[in-house]
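Action item from last meeting closed. Structure (754 res):
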């Protein structure tokens, strides 16, 4: 960013970021059954502020208070959250969460991460100013409408007052962003995107598992005499033209004289039946599956979606598709938005109807469970690590949704119908929770793919201990921070299970987690186990580049002295630009330094080449036994590294292909690297530099994916679906990276209870 563009920002030197241990065993803390246990635990947090990274915030006026709520598990467990305020303005998200048993013992403590000093204590902009700034930003989903509130957005060095503007669902863009507007500077960023992709006749689960549709009772009778309109949900069919490039949702099914909805079931072996625009069976199907799954969730203590507050309803939309000048175009996806006017949306796809597969309905409502339990945060924010910038929280969001779906269905396969009839998908379904995937070998930086080892751990635990694991999963989500890593999520789940189901159950989780690589997972994978493309987050806030979520680990064969690494790049809307950093016998190590308006990325490596539009790249092996390669994103959009190929060259002097555009890697062999362009390299192989296209930040530091392929940035550790938007029920990566959630085909009918 040019200096003039940030002249109003507070002058401050970059400050290195030091994280804290997020999951801690506070077994020495015992507050008994006193009614003031929440405030007593808040006092413990104050006493241990240095260990939790809160000292600077407390010195600048942060005040702490505790709240209590019942855990979902039986046995008198409570979850205590410690929140903060600066001069009455609430801090976004708790600074600490604790699981407390009936005797007042803390069984696990989860820190929210370091909170820096408040650096803009006066809100110079009003709520109206913030909404105007959002509308003028041009970011996807920007609107002058939306709920607006002032919060203190925590950053590890700088905490900033920001206005949160929660936009309505943008149906055309399939995005529902929450914007953060700096209350002093007016900088606008996307903090996160809320979109996460009677009797009835229906398929009980889907037309593959249940080829013949049956007639089933609804758990919750419709409150209307002739529509699918219940206390908690309403079904709609997307059949008109909304005028915004999408179809228009409205109720279309009508009960028969007996009060039932017995529409003819499709013959899914007939391709034409799978692609009907506006068929009423799809509308009945989503209502039926939502109805029975929601009743199951309530039986495990779930209190409802945000849309159910104040007696509200969540709207379910079937047959969603694009409309352009009267032409209808299929939508191959499904998503959860949290917007009460279109809470869960199921596409009429090019080959399948996403409303027919119950697994998909359960998965999308599973996202609603996570959304509710996370409160003001989103389980999907990025996390800065020395080995990369990861979206583990988003992967766990997907893993929990798959786990709830499969546990309810009693089957580890998610999306049998979609897998059977959508030719894009290879295999029996979208994902299999009884998989063999491990971290890091099978992770690529895309949340659906990266969810699978974690989902497999949840599923294995449920297979061993039954549905008592479901409330334990609820309580795990309650305790997690929005940018938790896979290792932290695993540790919290283990501690909750041990507390609620016994030490033997905790040991079981330990063993499964170890076998899945979820205890300590260095993010570096071999090309031999790579399941598809590598994904890297978009640029803008990070400078001079964005670290990857996953590095490559190349084991050097005997006698090799050089390697050619070939690859292609893919992004959306901008030209892809990537850098290649290489280090011998140790992973490339990234560091982060925060200023009020940008995050400076440093890296330790042995060789680099920047400004590439693709491969190949030649690298010298030296005396190394292992090479670690990190692709860094220099473009302002999510980037995918495709077609990775490795060619080793022997010690005889063979150099491999000299394809045009390969370029030269400047490698002195003594640990000194020089870098191209404006980036300066130090003698220890660490690059630093400010880059162009920096986006102002409100001080907390991370960048959020806005649900679209266009670049955006955010405060705090931010969400990133990795697939460019929506619930991300699918990606463009083949079956290796199935990104669909789960579907269930059905035809519904409601029978009045007399």
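Sequence:
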């Amino acid at each position: 960013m040019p200096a003039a563009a940030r002249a109003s920002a507070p002058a401050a030197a970059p400050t290195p970021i030091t994280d804290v241990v997020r999951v801690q065993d506070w077994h020495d803390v015992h507050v008994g059954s006193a009614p003031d246990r929440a405030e007593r635990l808040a006092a413990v947090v104050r006493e241990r502020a240095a260990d939790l990274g809160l000292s600077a915030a407390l010195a600048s006026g942060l005040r702490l208070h505790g709240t209590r709520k019942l855990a979902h598990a039986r046995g008198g467990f409570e979850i205590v959250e410690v929140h903060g305020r600066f001069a009455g303005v609430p801090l976004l998200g708790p600074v600490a969460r604790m699981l407390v048993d009936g005797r007042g013992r803390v069984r696990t403590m989860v820190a929210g991460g370091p909170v820096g000093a408040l650096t803009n204590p006066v809100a110079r902009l009003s709520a109206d100013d913030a909404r105007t700034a959002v509308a003028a930003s041009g970011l996807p989903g920007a609107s002058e409408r939306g709920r607006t509130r002032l919060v203190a957005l925590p950053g590890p060095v700088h905490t900033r007052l920001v206005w949160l503007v929660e936009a309505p669902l943008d149906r055309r863009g399939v995005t529902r962003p929450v914007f953060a507007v700096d209350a002093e500077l007016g900088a606008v960023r996307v903090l996160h995107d809320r979109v996460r992709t009677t009797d009835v006749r229906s398929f009980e689960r889907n037309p593959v598992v249940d080829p013949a549709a049956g007639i089933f009772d609804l758990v919750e009778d419709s409150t209307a005499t002739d529509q699918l309109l219940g206390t908690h949900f309403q079904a709609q069919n997307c059949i008109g033209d909304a005028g915004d490039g999408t179809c228009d949702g409205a109720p279309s099914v009508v009960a028969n004289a007996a009060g039932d909805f017995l529409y003819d079931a499709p013959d899914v072996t007939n391709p034409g039946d799978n692609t009907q625009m506006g068929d009423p069976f799809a509308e009945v199907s989503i209502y039926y599956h939502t109805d029975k799954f929601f009743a199951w969730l309530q039986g495990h203590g779930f209190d409802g979606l945000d849309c159910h507050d104040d007696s509200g309803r969540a709207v379910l939309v079937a047959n969603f598709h694009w409309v352009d000048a009267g032409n209808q175009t299929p939508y191959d996806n499904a998503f959860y938005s949290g917007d009460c006017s279109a809470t869960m949306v199921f596409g009429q796809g090019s080959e399948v109807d996403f409303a027919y597969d119950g697994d998909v309905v359960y998965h999308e409502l599973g996202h609603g469970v996570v959304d509710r339990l996370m409160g003001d945060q989103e389980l999907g924010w990025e996390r800065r690590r020395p080995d990369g910038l990861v979206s583990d929280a988003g992967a766990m969001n997907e893993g929990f949704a798959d786990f709830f779906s499969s546990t309810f269905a009693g089957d580890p396969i998610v999306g049998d119908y979609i897998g059977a009839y959508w030719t894009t998908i290879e295999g029996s379904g979208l994902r299999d929770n009884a998989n063999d995937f491990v971290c890091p070998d099978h992770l690529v930086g895309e949340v659906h793919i990266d969810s699978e080892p974690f989902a497999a751990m949840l599923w294995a635990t449920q297979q061993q201990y039954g549905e008592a694991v479901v409330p334990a999963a609820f309580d795990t989500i309650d305790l997690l921070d929005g940018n938790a890593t896979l290792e932290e999520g695993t540790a919290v789940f283990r501690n909750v299970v041990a507390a609620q189901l016994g030490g033997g159950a905790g040991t079981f989780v330990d063993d499964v987690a170890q076998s899945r690589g979820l205890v300590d997972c260095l993010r570096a994978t071999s090309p031999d186990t790579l399941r598809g493309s590598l994904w890297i987050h978009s640029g803008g806030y990070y400078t001079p580049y964005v670290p990857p979520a996953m590095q490559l680990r190349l084991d050097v064969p005997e006698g090799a002295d050089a390697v050619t690494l070939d690859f292609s790049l893919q992004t959306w809307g901008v030209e892809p630009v990537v850098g290649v950093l290489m280090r011998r016998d140790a992973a490339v190590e990234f560091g982060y330094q925060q200023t009020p308006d940008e995050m400076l990325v440093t890296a330790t490596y042995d060789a680099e080449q920047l400004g590439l539009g693709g491969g190949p790249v030649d690298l010298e092996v030296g005396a190394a036994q292992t090479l670690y390669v990190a692709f860094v994103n220099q473009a302002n959009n999510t980037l995918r590294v495709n077609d990775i190929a490795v060619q080793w060259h022997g010690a005889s002097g063979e150099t491999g292909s000299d394809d045009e555009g390969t370029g030269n890697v400047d490698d002195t062999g003594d640990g000194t690297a020089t870098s191209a362009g404006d980036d300066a390299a130090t003698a220890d192989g660490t690059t630093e530099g400010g880059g162009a296209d920096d986006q102002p930040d409100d001080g907390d530091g991370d960048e959020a994916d806005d649900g679209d392929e266009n670049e955006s940035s955010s405060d705090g550790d931010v969400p990133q679906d990795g697939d460019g938007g929506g619930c991300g029920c699918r990606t463009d990566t083949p079956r290796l990276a199935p990104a669909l959630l789960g579907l269930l085909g059905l035809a519904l009918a409601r029978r009045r209870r007399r």
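Note appended to the action item: The chain has 14 helices and 38 strands.
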